[in-house]
Amino acid sequence: MQHHARRYLDPYLRAVRLVDLGAVVLGVGAAQLLRFGVEERMLHSMYGTVSYLTVTIVLVVAWMLSLQLHKAYDGRLAGHGVQEYRQVFSATTSLFAILAIVAFAFKLDFARGYVLVAFPLGAVLLLVGRYLARRWLVVQRRLGRLSDRVLLVGDRDHVASLVVALRRTPDAGYNVVGACVDNARGEVEGVPVLGPESDVLVRAMEHDVDVVAVSSSAGLGQVGLRRLGWALEGRDVDLVVAPGIMDVAGPRVLTRPVQGLPLIHVEAPDFSGPHLVLKNVCDRIAALFLLVLLAPLMLVVAVCVKLEDGGPVLFRQSRVGHEGRTFSMWKFRSMVVDAEDQLPRLIGLSDASGPLFKLRSDPRVTRTGSIIRKFSLDELPQLVNVLRGEMSLVGPRPPLPREVAAYETAARRRLLVKPGMTGLWQINGRSDLSWDEAVRLDLYYVENWTPLLDVMILWRTLQVVLRPGGNGAY
């Protein structure tokens, strides 16, 4: 059941229900028309017969009920993360499994063509509908609308970290309006301090917040947190507890209650096993397919680079890969031939922080180079590196040896997996990111990798590449 604190989302969720209903009706209706046409057909069982039109109506109702039971309309999942899509997929597969069991138990002679069209088509339409609805919601949230008003509780450092994290992901719909921090005044990361932790309930009511987020550093204690939860009951305010573990994805977290104490189990990252083998195989197959598909485009780029100044088409550079092994990474040359020789005089002008060198208006970039960089076409030859097993389609940014030499201990964990042609750094600003932020994103990927995360990054990469100018590529 949807929490009342998000009543502002009710119109959106009603619209999502209508979109889902349309997708289900279209999927099941198309299955009936494609399999039977306009003729009335009957489903036979050991208990008699029933028309497929009745079956279609029952299936639509059951599908919508399954979506409701799987909490596919929980506003807390709307707009951010993969959980919303996972609920839709789980509802669909559960219904399909139940249908198979019922058909076997009651000896229902379902037309295979009907089932094989209805469920895949319905699932795809549901996911597409959710994606389009989410795009609209994300736009609204980035404009400051349809978001929870949040009050943070904790010490200054933890509150500051929470503010930065929530600002980084406006899609999640958390708009921080204030904080309750002991022994602090003024602001924390631009958020006004409204009072000490003991005033949290009063300040929550005064500022009409939807969520009170308590960090692990809060001095409320076990009893104080329980009393706060009791006090917020019936006031249309959610209580959220932010544990002191950062950058750990949901699949690695298991909450297990023991004697009323919620113990959080954090699984260790997995750097081997069947999933990794599958990733390597899929990488090489996809790289071979893309090399064949994009061969005409790569030929055009090569000709343009050659005609620019008559120099080499490809640029080879040593990069550090999996477990510190050095390999030659290939790119289309986007700079003048003697670019490496000019680097020492430009080092001091770098726009990047840390060991990374980036120059927004790099004088070494050619005219052709500036164009292919905007669309990331200069990176297409790296498909050869993927095919050879030196890189992956998705992974941390491939570092230079001089960058690795300046790595701190945490940053070296980026080398536990193969570097990628794209990654979280590419879809979150690329060269516009600070060094610390780039490292954080890479470490998050290394420790929380899943096949689904790879698919999401590849999809987002396509969107970023087709929207040049605002993707941090220079």
Automatic annotation (TrEMBL):
<feature type="transmembrane region" description="Helical">
    <location>
        <begin position="12"/>
        <end position="34"/>
    </location>
</feature>
<dbReference type="InterPro" id="IPR017475">
    <property type="entry name" value="EPS_sugar_tfrase"/>
</dbReference>
<protein>
    <submittedName>
        <fullName>Undecaprenyl-phosphate galactose phosphotransferase WbaP/exopolysaccharide biosynthesis polyprenyl glycosylphosphotransferase</fullName>
    </submittedName>
</protein>
<dbReference type="GO" id="GO:0016020">
    <property type="term" value="C:membrane"/>
</dbReference>
<dbReference type="GO" id="GO:0016780">
    <property type="term" value="F:phosphotransferase activity, for other substituted phosphate groups"/>
</dbReference>
<dbReference type="Pfam" id="PF13727">
    <property type="entry name" value="CoA_binding_3"/>
</dbReference>
<dbReference type="Pfam" id="PF02397">
    <property type="entry name" value="Bac_transf"/>
</dbReference>
<keyword id="KW-0472">Membrane</keyword>
<keyword id="KW-0812">Transmembrane</keyword>
<feature type="transmembrane region" description="Helical">
    <location>
        <begin position="46"/>
        <end position="67"/>
    </location>
</feature>
<keyword id="KW-1133">Transmembrane helix</keyword>
<feature type="transmembrane region" description="Helical">
    <location>
        <begin position="88"/>
        <end position="108"/>
    </location>
</feature>
<feature type="transmembrane region" description="Helical">
    <location>
        <begin position="285"/>
        <end position="303"/>
    </location>
</feature>
<feature type="transmembrane region" description="Helical">
    <location>
        <begin position="114"/>
        <end position="133"/>
    </location>
</feature>
<comment type="similarity">
    <text>Belongs to the bacterial sugar transferase family.</text>
</comment>
<feature type="domain" description="Bacterial sugar transferase">
    <location>
        <begin position="279"/>
        <end position="466"/>
    </location>
</feature>
<dbReference type="InterPro" id="IPR003362">
    <property type="entry name" value="Bact_transf"/>
</dbReference>
<keyword id="KW-0808">Transferase</keyword>
